[in-house]
Amino acid sequence: MTAVPSHRSQLVELSADALRARLYEALGLYITAMGYPKGTAEQRAPMWLAHMLREGWRCVAALDQNDELTGICYGYKGAPGQWWHEQVRRGVLELAGPGVADEWMRDYFELTELHVRPDSQGRGTGERLLRMLLDGVPQDRVLLSTPEGKTRAWSLYRRVGFVDVLRNYRFTGDPRPFAVLGRQLPMTPS
User: Fold this and answer.
1) Alpha carbons 162 and 93: distance in angstroms, whole number
2) Per-residue pLDDT averaged across 6-11, rounded?
3) Helix, strand, coil shares of the chain as percentages rounded to 5?
4) Which of 7, 28, 62, 83 could share a disulfide with 70, CB 3.0–4.6 Å?
5) Which residues are catalytic?
6) Which residues lie below 8 Å from residue 59, measured CB to CB, with a gap of 6+?
7) How far is residue 86 from each of residues 22, 39, 81, 161, 169, measured CA to CA in Å?
8) Is the Cβ–Cβ distance between 168 and 148 less than 8 Å?
9) Torsion angle (degrees, nearest 10) of CA 137, 159, 28, 111
């Protein structure tokens, strides 16, 4: 792990092995931050483990003074054949056509997860995680999906320059409307 000191929380890069060792702690944070039922961890664990095998996977975490996770952020290079890529491409094709879909989805980093424990939100942790994760990413752009609605996540994404790619999209198997947001890389320093 590579540590970056901070007065609020310590940010660290996690290897796949390090995240595997903390997987249920990380999933617990995710479930709490998203308000999901406890059984969600068993459903999500195999997906998170599979994501760790994808090209360009990287992960950053925030740790408190007791070495407990207060935030988790990971992603990887998006590519054809991945479930999220195919879902988003279909939506962008329907909305804006192949030119827009090709432009956004030709060379991108998928920000898959970014979560901060509710008792640690509002302290800049999410933005610090996001910036550290995306620093040095070789892709031209970053894409993410987030549930529609005014949240701290929405405020963060807008503040750092994410724009609408697709709005009120419904992913297969989830009745909630989502937004797909994107921005060019690299990010400017904060």
Assistant:
1) 20
2) 72
3) 40, 25, 35
4) 62
5) 157
6) 13, 14, 15, 16, 18, 19, 52, 72, 73, 74, 133
7) 29, 27, 6, 24, 13
8) yes
9) -30
